[in-house]
Structure formats: structure tokens, C-alpha cells
């Protein structure tokens, strides 16, 4: 049997690299299957959609899965089972990036189960795989008859030496001023997420526009491939919803004005929710026949949701008043507190409206670093943030099933917002944990603010405080009206057209996450949202500084203290000792944790402990082991042996040299004036011809003046050179 003929299409990047889209060779029983290749990196994406929706399903059951096969990079998994296990955080983040762009592009009334699976099957060590994941997923769908309002694509944008670039090599990421992923269709930006080194709002917009041009290029390549394959047209027919127009009309007519009045009356989240439920209950109360009520209720709930959405949107557009009574620009009341948890190394409560984060900071050593082991990278992460969203934060009781994708995503956003403000010289491993205790909009941004407060409370010398804000958008296509909302509520996120989270310092943006639910959002609206976000961000920063203006000068008494040392690489073995005997005994004696890392020609030593005196004792022990005298340095030594010609002085453990009798004082001595055990300050003068250490004490003493000579008379003859006093010769 001969191999099937693949159908391919090429995409040429600005730097000349080529992306190959290939189908028809692998996984042919899937509805769509594509291999995307750039350099030696290859991703395979498949999609399968059921023909019919499951009974009672009124949403799109879309699953996006991304997995990295360790064989792709010639690696064996490092876990106990030696096989790929649960997805890593990085894999989950890639799934979310793809899902957030794909999901809004399926028709609203399409409810058949859809499964998109993306696998990294080859990795060349240079190409970043998640840059291609969105392109692979969209292409797999685009060549099928699955209803889809795409294609779309995603690209990574970086800025190196002032120049924007698309999909850089892995090694270039660290040089970049920004690192953002942008997802879009031909006509609209759909998703933006990334981190920046305090860039301006204008730079952000330029990067998004730059990305969109490349995305259009990739979408056109998908369209060409779909034409070649031929099965994408026409799209399959489906009917996943049934409607009753009579009930729809009745619901709108009898509930809209009541809902509008509830929306217009400022209220808290729970009170407002009860008022909305009461309007629906009043409507359904007119149906006294049980069979009729059972028939009407499902339709009424669907249409009533549409009424709620439209009434709230129109109220905001027309009245410029929001559900809680604020105008579009006003930030909810803020209060915060630090040092709330006495056992933590740093802690803070940050509350904005009905959203509250309790955040704690823990300081650790290099041994506490988060080990990241994947196909793409293997490194220790010394700053990481975990975000928890328990059900009680929204007044719910639901099962706990481990960390959700949402929690991973929100935690990653907050981590990226703060990461660039941690100084490079920071010696600690830092873990930040945010527990959301109340939630009504923008808990990830509350995490950023609480994280800043807790880090400063812990004595971490962050470069600048960081705050975050979530922006919303309400638009009306018919009238052309739009309203940008600062610090959105949960309802405004759910019913609005945009969720745009922006974090930053006084000097620029450090991270962002944007999801847009409408087509054709203009750059003008996006610019207004960014500038309004800046005003809100600065307002929140002011509130943070009222609680704590700058980091504490030192860590708390019960927090670990840290000292970093560097020693020549050749001494690493001596510090560790045979079988680790020396370093283990040193840790036991000083109650410290000592970690050694070999970096090039040096050994970097990290010593951590709670008691500074014990840390200093560990430093002294290591200095003894690694001591190398420096010519010209002064040392306080101890006399270990006295001879007629001088004294042997130990300037460190195991390091001693001769202090010759002629080097003790400027005057001539007949006897060494020391006994064993005496302390003496000496200067290291170097080594003699036999490689023996030479020490001197007299060079540290004031040199005596030369004796005054008698004036010569004419009859005096000059004395020969050899008759000069010894001191002058």
C-alpha cells in the first residue's frame, strides 16, 4: 500500500521562515486533521464534532486539549510512571489560549459536542510550540464541514531592540520588552494575553495591529488549503434548538420594563439577583396548569436571560448608570490591610467592592523552587503565584475537583503581572498564594493588588508597586452607542462585549488579558479602554500606597534570612565533603539550609536560616574551607609556633605563613616577642621562591623617621657607602 498524497499550503513569515500546513496523511478518520510544521517543530491537530446535540444541552460542549509528547524532544518523562501524565500548567495555559479564540466563533445555536486535540509531535529546541497551536486548531476545523465562523489564528509578538517580530525563537524571548499572544479573525481581534516591561498604551496598540497583519496572512493560507481539500463547503445542516415565538414575545412584553427598573435601582449582587428571580417567578405564576407550566418554563428561562441582558445593556448605554449605581469610570470602594497573618512571611487583604483576596507570601531557598520539566524547557522557577477560587466566594456549594483551568489561568496572569518587578538580585524563592474570599468581578486583578501589598509586607524589595483593573464594554450595533466600563462587576463581564484586564505600575503596563465577544471592535474603542484603564490603575495604586508606600527594610523576624556567596569551582567538593559529610554537619551545627549550584567557573552558595548569627557562622566555616589569601590584604592571625628566626602565624584554618623576626618591627629585634596563641595583625606579602607565604607586621606600623645627620665641614671626607647605617642602606 502506497502512502497517501498529502495536501499542503505554505505560509512565509517576515524573517523568511516557512510554516507548512499539511493534511490528508495522518488521522484520516477524524473530521479534520492537520500537521503544522515550522523548522523541526511539528504539531498535529484533530477535530471531531458529533452530528447531533445531546438531549437537554443548551450550550456548546467544546473541549480543547493540548499535550506535549516527550518523544518530540527526545526526552523520557521524569515522573514515577515515565509516561505523560496530567497536563502541566503550561499545557493548560495553551489550551485556554486556543479555547478563548475558538469558542466565540461557533454559532450560538450549535450545541453538538466538539473535541479539538492538539499534540506536539516534534520539537527542534528553537520554535515555541504554543505559537502554532491556534493556527493548527483553526486549520483542522476550517477544512471540515463543521459550522464555524472562522478561520482564526494566533501569533506571538515580541519587541527586541525596538523592533516588533512574530513567533521568535525560544532564546530570543528573554531579550524582549513584551511577550503577547494575539488571536484574531480576518476582521476582528478576539483575544490578547501577555506580559510587558512597563510599555505604554500606544506601544500595546501597535503590537496588536502588527500581529493582526500576520494573522490575516495565516488565515488566507487556511482558506486556500480548505479550497484544495474541498469538503468544507457547504457546512453541515443542524437544528439544535427549538423555539416558541409566542412565549418569547410574551416574556419580553411582560418582563422587560420590570427588569429595567431592577437594573436601574442600585443594589448589591445578592439583592439584585433575588429581584431578577422574583420578576421571572411572577411571570411564571400566571400558569396554574402544571403541564403548561412545565412546557413554558424552559422557554421562559432562555428568553428571560435575553431580556436581562438587553435591559441591563440599554440601561447602561442610555442612563450611563451601572447596576451598583456607579458611573462608567468610577472604581468601587477599596480597603486593604497588611500583616494580617502572623505566621506568614508576608500577608495582605485587598477588598474592592464585593471582591476580596487574602494573599500570603512565603520565602524559601533554592531548594523550594518550582521545578518546570517539559519538552520545551527544564528550569527552576524562583517566583510563582497560586490562585484559589473556592465556591463559597460566590455563595455557592459545589463539589471540589482540584485546580481548575480558570484558576491556573488567573494565577498565571497575576504572576506575569508581578514577575518583572522582582529584582534580579533577589536571593529568595518566593511563593505567593491568593485565596479569593469574595468574588463579584475581577478577582485576578484583586490578586495582583493583594500580591503587591503582601510582597512589600514580606520585605521583598520589589522595584515598583503594581495594580490591576478589569475593563468592560457595552455596545449597540444599531445606534452605534458604546460605553467603556472601569472595574467591572461579574454581571457586566457576563453580559458585556469585552473583558479587558490590564496591570501595571505608574510607568507602564506589565501584563494584560483581553477577550472580545463582538466582531469588528475598532482600535479607537480599544485605545479609549486602555487610557481609561490607566486612570483606574493609577487610582488603585494610590490606595495601595496609603496602606504601605514601599517595602519593609528587612524580612520579618521569623522569616528566613538569606546570604549568597560565590566560591571558585575547585572548592565545591571541599565544601560538600565525601558523601556530603561536611555540608550536612555544617547545616546541623548552624541550623541552616545550604545549597550549592555550579555556574560556569564558580560555585554559587545559598545559605538560609532564621538566625542571622548562625548564618554568619556558616559563612565563616565556608570561608575557612575556601580561604585563598590575597596579596596585600591584612589578616588577624594567631601564633601557632615560635622559632628563633620568627613566628608561624595562622591567618585561617589550615593556612599559615612565616612572620620573620625582621618583619615584626622596624627596629632590630633579638628575640621574637610572641608566645603561642597570641593574636597578631599581619599583611600577606606574597610567596617566596619556595612558594612559602610571607607575612609582615612592620609594614602596618608607622615607619620611623631617618636619623638627622650632622652638617659636614670642609675637612670632612665623605664616608664610604658600606659605612651607612643598616636602616639607610
Q: Would you write up a description of this structure?
A:
With 729 residues, this protein is of the alpha+beta class. It is 29% helix and 29% strand. The strands form 6 sheets. It has an 8-stranded antiparallel beta sheet with strand order 8-7-9-10-21-20-18-19, sandwiched between helices. It has a 6-stranded mixed beta sheet with strand order 1-2-3-4-6-5. It starts with 6 loop residues before the first strand and ends in a 33-residue tail after the last strand.
Summarize the structure.
29% of the residues lie in helices and 29% in strands. The protein is built from 13 helices and 29 strands.
Layout of strands and helices, then pairs:
Layout: E1 7-12, E2 18-23, E3 32-38, E4 41-49, E5 62-68, H1 89-102, E6 114-122, H2 130-142, E7 153-160, E8 163-166, E9 178-184, E10 189-199, H3 201-229, H4 245-264, H5 269-284, H6 290-319, E11 334-338, E12 346-352, E13 355-364, E14 370-373, E15 378-381, E16 383-388, H7 405-419, E17 429-438, H8 443-457, E18 467-475, E19 482-486, H9 490-495, E20 498-505, E21 508-516, H10 523-547, E22 561-568, H11 572-576, H12 581-590, E23 593-599, E24 602-609, H13 612-625, E25 634-643, E26 646-652, E27 655-660, E28 679-687, E29 693-696
Parallel strand pairs: 5-6, 16-17, 27-29
Antiparallel strand pairs: 1-2, 2-3, 3-4, 4-6, 7-8, 7-9, 9-10, 10-21, 11-12, 12-13, 13-17, 14-15, 18-19, 18-20, 20-21, 22-24, 23-24, 25-26, 25-28, 26-27, 28-29
Helix pairs in contact: 1-2, 1-7, 2-3, 4-5, 4-6, 7-8, 12-13
Amino acid at each position: 500500500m502506497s502512502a497517501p498524497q498529502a495536501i499542503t499550503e505554505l505560509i512565509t513569515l517576515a524573517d523568511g521562515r516557512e510554516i507548512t500546513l499539511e493534511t490528508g496523511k495522518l488521522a484520516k478518520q477524524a473530521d479534520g486533521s492537520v500537521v503544522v510544521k515550522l523548522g523541526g517543530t511539528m504539531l498535529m491537530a484533530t477535530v471531531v464534532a458529533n452530528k447531533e446535540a445531546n438531549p437537554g444541552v443548551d450550550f456548546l460542549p467544546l473541549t480543547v486539549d493540548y499535550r506535549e509528547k516527550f518523544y518530540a524532544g527526545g526526552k523520557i518523562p521524569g515522573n514515577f510512571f515515565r509516561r505523560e501524565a496530567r497536563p502541566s500548567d503550561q499545557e493548560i495555559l495553551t489550551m485556554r489560549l486556543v479555547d478563548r479564540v475558538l469558542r466565540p466563533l461557533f454559532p450560538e445555536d450549535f450545541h453538538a459536542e466538539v473535541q479539538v486535540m492538539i499534540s506536539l509531535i516534534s520539537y527542534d529546541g528553537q520554535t515555541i510550540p504554543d505559537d502554532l497551536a491556534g493556527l493548527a486548531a483553526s486549520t483542522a476545523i476550517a477544512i471540515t464541514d463543521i459550522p464555524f465562523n472562522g478561520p482564526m489564528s494566533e501569533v506571538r509578538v515580541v519587541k527586541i531592540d525596538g523592533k516588533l517580530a512574530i513567533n521568535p525563537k525560544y532564546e530570543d524571548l528573554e531579550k524582549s520588552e513584551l511577550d503577547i499572544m494575539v488571536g484574531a479573525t480576518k476582521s476582528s481581534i478576539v483575544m490578547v494575553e501577555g506580559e510587558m516591561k512597563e510599555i505604554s498604551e500606544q506601544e500595546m496598540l501597535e503590537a496588536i495591529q502588527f500581529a493582526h497583519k500576520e494573522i490575516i496572512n495565516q488565515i488566507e493560507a487556511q482558506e486556500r488549503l480548505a479550497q484544495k481539500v474541498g469538503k468544507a463547503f457547504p457546512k453541515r445542516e443542524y437544528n439544535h434548538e427549538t423555539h416558541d415565538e409566542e412565549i418569547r414575545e410574551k416574556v419580553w412584553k411582560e418582563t422587560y420594563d420590570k427588569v429595567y427598573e431592577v437594573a436601574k435601582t442600585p443594589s448589591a449582587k445578592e439583592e439584585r439577583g433575588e429581584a431578577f428571580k422574583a420578576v421571572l417567578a411572577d411571570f411564571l405564576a400566571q400558569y396554574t396548569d402544571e403541564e403548561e407550566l412545565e412546557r413554558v418554563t424552559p422557554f421562559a428561562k432562555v428568553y428571560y436571560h435575553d431580556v436581562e441582558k438587553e435591559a441591563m445593556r440599554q440601561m447602561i448605554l442610555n442612563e450611563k448608570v451601572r447596576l451598583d449605581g456607579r458611573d462608567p469610570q468610577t472604581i468601587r470602594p477599596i480597603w486593604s490591610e497588611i500583616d494580617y497573618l502572623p505566621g506568614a512571611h508576608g500577608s495582605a487583604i485587598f477588598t474592592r467592592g464585593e471582591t476580596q483576596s487574602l494573599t500570603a507570601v512565603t520565602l524559601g531557598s533554592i531548594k523550594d523552587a518550582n521545578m518546570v520539566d517539559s519538552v520545551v524547557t527544564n528550569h527552576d522557577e524562583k517566583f510563582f503565584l497560586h490562585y484559589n477560587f473556592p465556591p463559597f466566594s460566590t455563595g455557592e456549594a459545589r463539589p471540589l475537583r482540584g485546580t481548575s483551568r480558570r484558576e491556573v489561568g488567573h494565577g498565571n496572569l497575576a504572576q506575569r503581572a508581578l514577575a518583572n518587578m522582582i529584582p534580579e538580585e533577589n536571593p529568595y524563592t518566593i511563593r505567593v498564594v491568593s485565596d479569593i474570599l469574595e468574588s463579584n468581578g475581577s478577582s485576578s486583578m484583586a490578586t495582583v493588588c493583594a500580591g503587591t501589598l503582601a510582597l512589600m509586607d514580606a520585605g521583598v524589595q520589589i522595584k515598583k508597586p503594581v495594580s490591576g483593573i478589569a475593563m468592560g464594554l457595552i455596545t449597540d450595533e444599531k445606534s452605534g452607542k458604546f460605553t467603556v466600563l472601569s472595574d467591572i462587576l461579574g454581571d457586566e463581564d457576563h453580559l458585556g462585549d469585552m473583558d479587558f484586564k490590564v496591570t501595571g505600575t505608574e510607568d507602564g503596563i506589565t501584563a494584560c488579558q483581553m477577550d472580545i465577544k463582538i466582531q469588528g471592535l475598532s482600535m479607537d474603542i480599544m485605545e479609549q479602554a486602555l487610557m481609561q484603564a490607566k486612570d483606574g490603575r493609577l487610582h488603585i495604586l494610590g490606595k495601595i500606597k496609603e496602606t504601605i508606600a514601599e517595602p519593609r527594610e528587612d524580612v520579618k523576624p521569623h522569616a528566613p534570612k538569606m546570604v549568597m556567596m560565590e566560591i571558585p569551582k575547585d572548592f565545591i567538593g571541599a565544601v560538600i565533603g565525601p558523601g556530603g559529610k561536611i555540608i550536612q554537619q555544617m547545616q546541623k551545627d548552624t541550623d541552616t539550609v545550604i545549597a550549592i549550584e555550579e555556574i560556569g567557573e564558580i560555585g554559587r552558595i545559598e545559605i538560609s536560616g532564621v538566625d542571622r548569627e548562625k548564618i554568619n557562622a556558616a559563612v565563616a566555616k565556608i570561608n575557612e574551607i575556601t580561604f585563598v589569601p590575597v596579596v596585600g590584604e591584612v589578616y588577624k592571625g594567631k601564633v601557632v609556633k615560635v622559632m628563633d628566626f620568627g613566628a608561624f602565624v595562622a591567618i585561617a584554618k589550615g593556612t599559615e605563613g612565616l612572620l620573620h623576626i625582621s618583619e615584626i618591627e622596624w627596629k632590630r629585634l633579638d628575640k621574637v616577642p610572641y608566645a603561642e596563641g597570641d593574636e597578631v595583625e599581619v599583611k600577606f606579602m606574597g610567596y617566596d621562591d619556595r612558594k612559602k607565604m610571607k607575612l609582615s607586621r612592620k609594614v602596618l606600623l608607622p615607619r620611623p623617621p631617618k636619623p638627622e645627620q650632622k652638617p659636614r665641614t670642609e675637612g670632612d671626607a665623605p664616608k664610604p657607602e658600606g659605612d651607612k647605617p643598616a636602616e639607610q642602606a
